[in-house]
TrEMBL record:
InterPro entries: NAD(P)-bd_dom, NAD(P)-bd_dom_sf, Polyketide_Oxido-like. It comes from Cladophialophora psammophila CBS 110553. Residues 9-202 form the NAD(P)-binding domain. One of its GO terms (molecular function) is oxidoreductase activity, acting on the CH-NH group of donors, NAD or NADP as acceptor. This is NAD(P)-binding domain-containing protein. Belongs to the avfA family.
Length: 226
């Protein structure tokens, strides 16, 4: 089950773990980062130049794992959402057998109609909206891109938007990642970055018939630290 993986955000805190675990599991990895000093096999450029770099090689990958996300309170712009919009269109240009599975992470500021009520999550969303309006704008732009996909009922590109709440680095066993909806089936608000990386890679390793979350926006969570 070797996979040729493209990992976007490879220099970020989760991205480094996705790259390391993927290599450890024998996959071929190409990573994208703005600043590649911490990586070996990389595409290093500003996000605005990425389309040109990716366009000729997208068909080489079986899966794209993107852990890009706004990472400062002063973040502005919707470049990540625009990249995904471009990528969906670009993937549609490829032969159906050559279209990689796009797995990406965002936040639980994207509310899913299947979510249950959780007061902490509501307060957290409000808090982020207040202190990081630019990050919120990017997240809502990502939501819009994939809501348009859902509304159009297109199923010709396989994607999953993984919604996260709080990320931690607690050194938990890799296998604890779970998917579902906020406030349901044992959901908790946290996931360990190593468990997140492992969950994403395991999804990317699945055969198309085994992929349960295609075209959906599940919440992910992990083991609680006791
Ligand atoms: N941290 C949390 O508690 C939390 C909560 C909910 C959801 N999430 C989501 O979880 C994922 C991973 O989070 P993390 O905290 O592990 O990641 P992180 O360390 O914040 O890394 C984010 C990555 O995105 C890149 N990036 C951000 N904006 C970019 C832009 N405009 N152009 C190019 N690259 C850009 C960063 O590049 P640079 O290294 O060059 O800045 C970095 O590689 C993200 O999708 C995030 O939205 C995180």
């Amino acid at each position: 089950m070797h996979r040729n993986l493209l990992i976007l955000g490879g220099s970020g805190k989760t991205g480094i773990k996705v790259v390391q675990q993927s290599l450890g599991r024998g996959h071929t990895v190409t990573a994208y980062a703005r600043n590649a000093t911490r990586l070996k096999e990389v595409i290093e450029c500003e996000i605005s130049a990425l389309r040109e770099r990716l366009s000729p090689i997208l068909s080489q990958f079986e899966a794209i794992i993107s852990v890009l996300g706004p990472n400062s309170l002063s973040y502005t712009g919707t470049e990540i959402a625009q990249l995904y919009e471009w990528m969906l269109a670009e993937l549609r240009q490829l032969h159906i057998q050559q279209r990689p599975y796009l797995l990406l992470t965002s936040t639980q500021s994207i509310v899913n109609p299947e979510d249950g009520f959780d007061l902490f999550t509501k307060l957290h969303i409000f808090f982020i909206m207040t202190i990081a309006p630019g990050a919120r704008r990017e997240t809502m732009a990502i939501k819009d891109v994939f809501m348009r996909e859902i509304k159009s009922q297109k199923t010709d590109v396989e994607w999953t938007v993984c919604r996260l709440n709080l990320l931690k680095d607690s050194g938990l066993p890799l296998e604890g990642g779970k998917a579902g909806y906020v406030g349901k089936n044992g959901w908790i608000s946290t996931i360990d970055r190593a468990q997140l990386a492992f969950w994403l890679i395991r999804e990317a390793e699945k055969e198309p018939t085994e992929r349960k979350w295609v075209g959906k926006m599940p919440a992910l969570w992990g083991d609680s630290v006791v």
